[in-house]
Amino acid sequence: MKISNRFLGVLVAFVLLGIPTSHATIVPVQILDSFFSPDSVTVNPGDTIRWTNNGALLHTSTSGTSCVLDGTWDSPNLGPGGTFEWAFTTIGSFPYFCRFHCIFGMVGTAVVRVVPGVEERTNISSQGFSISLIRPNPFHRTTIIPYSLRQAAPVKIVIYNIVGRRVRTLVDAFEEQGQKQVVWDGFGDEGELLKSDIYFVLFETPTSRSVRKLIHLR
Ligand SMILES: [Cu+2]
After folding, report:
1. Disulfide-capable partner of 130 in 26, 34, 125, 180 (CB 3.0 to 4.6 Å)?
2. Distance of alpha carbon 14 from alpha carbon 29, whole angstroms
3. Could you tell me how far CA 49 lies from the centroid of its own chain?
4. Rounded to the nearest 5°, which phi and psi values hold at 120?
5. 25 CA distance to ligand 1 middle (Å)
6. How far is the CA of 34 from the centre of ligand 1 (A)?
7. CATH number of 123-216
8. Which pLDDT value is given to residue 34?
9. Ligand 1 centre distance from Cα of residue 98 (Å)
10. Which residues, 6+ apart, have CB-to-CB distance to 44 below 8 Å?
């Protein structure tokens, strides 16, 4: 089913009225010591981006271009482990930067639009678990794996290499129902950056099991 302009209009109206959309989700972006990862992220209207400082230095997420604040959002100084969230309610492209490192090119963009695959994301499978479009795929630095749970369940999301060896466990936890996503950064469980190759992501709950192919290009 294609998303019609009418549907889009209704969605936008809902967002403008402040009514949460059913697929609102928190999208993670990592702050590393010289860049945001991913540096461009596409979210649906109503989604929230959560920046987490996984670096060792102080950073910020500050909206604006050319290192000039535009006043939409400006996080406090985030130390290692610090997080900041911002909910995006209007469609558009929102550039941002780190106040400390913008002059070194530490910039990012949040693109807010109705993401293709939203129908799939909201059409939860009868087995209670569905996986949406993994994007980007192929990926270079990070890829986002969206999924949804119709009911709370123990969930395992594991990356295997081409010969079937487990290289990374992304999720192994009891999770509540809802739209989720997990980011894979191309690293293995031992902290090693894995080589360019085809990988498989296995999703497992007590009642379902499915596999998707992922291409990692370093
Ligand atoms: Cu910074």
Report:
1. 125
2. 26
3. 8
4. -65, -40
5. 25
6. 6
7. 2.60.40.1930
8. 87
9. 5
10. 21, 23, 24, 25, 112, 113, 114, 115, 118
Dist CA 120 CA 118 (whole Å): 5
For the cut 50, the answer to whether the pLDDT of residue 178 exceeds it is yes
Domains 5-112 and 123-216 share a fold: yes
- What is the distance in A from the centroid of ligand 1 to the CA of 88? 22
pLDDT averaged over the chain?
82
Return the CATH fold of 5-112: Immunoglobulin-like (2.60.40)
Residue 82 pLDDT more than 90?
yes
| pLDDT confidence tier of residue 125, bands split at 50, 70 and 90 | very low
Q: Domain-by-domain residue ranges, the chain?
A: 5-112, 123-216
Q: How far is the CA of 45 from the centre of ligand 1 (A)?
A: 26
CA of 183 to the centre of ligand 1 (A): 21
Query: In the prediction, which pLDDT does 114 show?
Result: 67
Ligand 1 mean position, distance from CA 105 (Å): 9
Residue 118 phi/psi, 5-degree rounding, is -65, -30
pLDDT(59) > 90: yes
